[in-house]
């Protein structure tokens, strides 16, 4: 009798689960069959985080431009390779001279992170020599828009970033500039550009009262000049480190960079995290090498091979499937505690890029990364249902001509269906 009762309960639970999935499938099918989706390309995959059951699947094997959903892969790479604190510098101290090289750490005097670990360390040395030969990358990613050079979201990648590789200019009685090395390079003139394309000459409109954040052109000599201006001492330059065992100086907790990258969709930090990861693997900074390493090792089981060309998602050359996204989100979910994982991702209605959308009724129910380029909007992450179930999802929408606000509204309706009915 007990066996029959147990079997009956199992059948009822399975029937309820099938019924829930059928209701969701019907609602989603009706939504996607509307005329709104006729001229765009949409892919969706939703799975139960615990049972791995597929709740909904639509074009999940097809490739999409992910935009900033690419940062989910960058996060996985960093979490897999980097220690709890970010390696800031590698150095050898010999004959009263400190030889050091950059690791790509973006936190050095970053305007929002404001870490001074490397600065304080270098200030306490008698003689410093900068080894600038381990950067084996390009300053921009493949397919980045050429005219983005002047905008805050597109700083150059570099071996030893300082101040996020941007200048900050704002007006009090006079124009204030940080780093101060560039104070004479900012002209109070109206210009259609914030900076000359090929030189570090910047423009600040006399009528402006905003803080202007503009990338500067990086080079070994510029890095040395900024360092000398900050340290108030001469800095030597060599192409490679002397022979000897390198030591590592660490800076900020790694999670502080992960949260900044995911909450603010910080492109610069995303790119630099790949470079730091590369420096941990083989002492050189090459983002392609670390992407290849991750795909061939930790992500060799992906059902479709992504085309992954940068860390931030600025490039339209990136191609990922919803199955790719859900697979990596699932790996993160199994490797990281839920509290830590959900703190790294923006929470709907509460934090980061989702602060003003996808709000829950009492508590956040969405913890996800959005990604947008013109005519593209993606959202991938985790959803907690009213029944306490955890879902992993990826919604990828490409090539639409409707307002992105309408795209998000329809997506939110589907997310609420998942929250309320599963």
Automatic annotation (TrEMBL):
The keyword Cytoplasm does not apply. PROSITE patterns: PROKAR_LIPOPROTEIN. Keywords: Carboxypeptidase, Hydrolase, Protease. It comes from the Bacteria. Pfam families: Peptidase_S13 (PF02113). Signal peptide: none annotated. GO terms for biological process: peptidoglycan metabolic process; proteolysis. InterPro entries: Beta-lactam/transpept-like (IPR012338), Peptidase_S13 (IPR000667). One of its GO terms (molecular function) is serine-type carboxypeptidase activity. The keyword Acetylation does not apply. Belongs to the peptidase S13 family. This is D-alanyl-D-alanine carboxypeptidase / D-alanyl-D-alanine-endopeptidase (Penicillin-binding protein 4). It comes from Maribacter stanieri. The lineage of its organism: Bacteria, Pseudomonadati, Bacteroidota, Flavobacteriia, Flavobacteriales.
